[in-house]
Amino acid sequence: REVIIRFDHEMDTEPGTVTWYPWQGNPAAYIAAWQHVVSIGRTVDPNIKWLWSPNRGTETTKLYYPGSQWVDYVGLTLNRNPTITQYKTFGQFYGDNQLVI
Predict the structure, then answer these.
(1) What pLDDT score does 95 carry?
(2) What angle do CA 35, 69, 28 make, to 5 degrees?
């Protein structure tokens, strides 16, 4: 059976900035670690699928993309804007978080 692993999520801070997780702030190190772990996982079991899941989907996010051959699925963390009490559509909630890599 297929298993999806969301590994090192919400990585996409500005280079040099670590806010929540130790894998933030260094895109080159992040990509190297991602590719290393995925290559091991694919050797262990080809049914493991890898979910690359940045936080917001900004221009900085592109710096952390490990490459299409290393990513099976793309997710996105979206947090509610506390100044908006009700969204009428998903498009309104999703807003500017439409990143094309």
Answers:
(1) 67
(2) 40
